[in-house]
Amino acid sequence: MSTSGVRVRIAPSPTGEPHVGTAYIALFNYLFAKKHNGTFILRIEDTDATRSTPEFEQKVLDALKWCGLEWSEGPDIGGPYGPYRQSDRKDIYRPYVDKIVANGHGFNCFCTPERLEKMREEQRAAGKPPKYDGLCLHLSAEEVTKRVEAGEPHVVRMKIPTEGSCKFVDGVYGPVEIPWDAVDMQVLLKADGMPTYHMANVVDDHMMKITHVARGEEWLASVPKHILIYQYLGLEPPVFMHLSLMRNHDKSKLSKRKNPTSISYYSALGYLPEALMNFLGLFFVQIAEGEELLTMEQLAEKFDPENLSKAGAIFDIQKLDWLNGRWLREQLSEEEFTQRVLAWAMENDRVRQGLKLSQSRISKLGELPDLAGFLLKSDLGLTPEAFAKVKSTPEEILEVLNQVQPDLEKMPEWTVESIEAELRASADRLGKKLKVVVAPLFVAVSGSSRSLPLFDSMAILGRSVVRQRLKVAAQVVASMVGSGK
């Protein structure tokens, strides 16, 4: 336990590949705990049962451990305030929701998804922000009881003040005021009995004695809802701190549609975790030129939560490359460098699986680099000429790439079998034979029309690397459309 009482947490949702933004927020909380001799906690927020998977939860744990972050309490190590996975805490939330309803601060809502969608469409058409219109707010107690007892599906929503505004002091932005008419009547409990993020978040932070909530600025608009829930339950809210989002150079939000954002991508390409943490940590410290190379301990020493920038943190890949190069050259001995290279090559069993697939396809070992080297490359250097042996037109190839990318994104598991099944389904949707779909993908993934088996190669490379290679391939092929190549 901490001597100061400061308790902070990172609470990712296991709904996809762990994002560098998760590492960014986690690092801030980790350094904040270090600065105050406090406790850093990991909690898994899996209230989205349709998208959360054990596979993604393990990826979150593995990714944050790879980053060098250590937590004192969490789903993998336990602690005095567990369970640390929301799906294991389902029965905890209902009494809190019932208390809000019993005190007149919440109500049952029987509106169907179809009715809500129609309502939102009409609001958007009228130029208004979509939010609940309060239809069920004034139902009589008798009617509510009757409909509940009849088994009619319903959710529980929170009431919002009709006048005035919510005023609070943010640890980064200072005084903030948000009018109540801009706040929606948030669902607190879903029809399946699971709490929403907002309800579970407040209850868990209270029960786990969280003193400071540091998260991305996209949650700033949700603070009024959270403060209300604390008030409705008669609880003291924590200190809120909202960090500027990481952005691209054009100030747009960092997203996987534009750039690689998965921690696993940077691991697979051979970035050192120390360099990535160094890079992210520079957003939280004030340093002079020439002091950029910092270990985790040095970042903790220089960390100053009182002097944070509100400007967007620019994710400059060139600066990350520069820092990573310096770490490789200046921070590792020859022996450490060799060990890191071997560990990287064996990551996810990449080399062994690649050699296993190569054995029956070569006549001498010297052919290995050309056949399997793509498994270790950071950049294939893809050109239009690489697609010369693909019989489809550029337009047809682009159609395949544009179909396959979103199809692969929605896959809950990333295995040889699931990849093959999804690509067969993609071929059916396109009305094409599988070999027509596979041919350009060989080039996109390996850089060559002669390669290792496609499905196996994609499984070895991993979702995040395949995503980026397909994105680059689509850009190359798009440049060919109409050019006669």
* H-E string: EHEHHEHHEEEEHEHEEHHHEHHHHHHHHH
Give the % helix. Answer: 40-55%
Q: Termini separation (Å)? A: 65 Å
Largest sheet: 3 strands, antiparallel
How many DSSP H or I helices? 19
Report Rg. 26 Å
Taking strands numbered 1, 2, ... along the chain, how are they ordered across the largest sheet?
Answer: 3-4-7
Query: Based on CA inertia axes, which overall geometry fits?
Result: globular
- Runs in which pLDDT lies below 50 for 5 or more consecutive residues are none
Strand proportion, as a percent range, falls in 5-15%
Query: Average pLDDT value?
Result: 93
DSSP E strands, number:
11
Class from helix and strand fractions: mainly alpha
What does this structure look like?
With 485 residues, the protein is mainly α. It has helices spanning 20-35, 54-66, 90-102, 113-125, 141-149, 197-207, 223-232, 263-268, 273-281, 296-302, 317-331, 334-345, 350-358, 368-372, 394-409, 416-430, 434-446, 454-461, 463-480; strands spanning 7-10, 39-42, 106-109, 155-158, 165-170, 174-179, 187-189, 212-216, 239-243, 246-247, 313-314. A three-stranded antiparallel beta sheet has the order 3-4-7. Strands 1-2 form a two-stranded parallel ribbon. Strands 5-6 form a two-stranded antiparallel ribbon. A hairpin with a 3-residue loop joins strand 5 and strand 6 (174-179). Helix 13 (350-358) runs antiparallel to helix 18 (454-461), helix 15 crosses helix 16 (416-430) and helix 16 packs across helix 18 (454-461). The protein is globular. The model has no long low-confidence stretch (mean pLDDT 93).
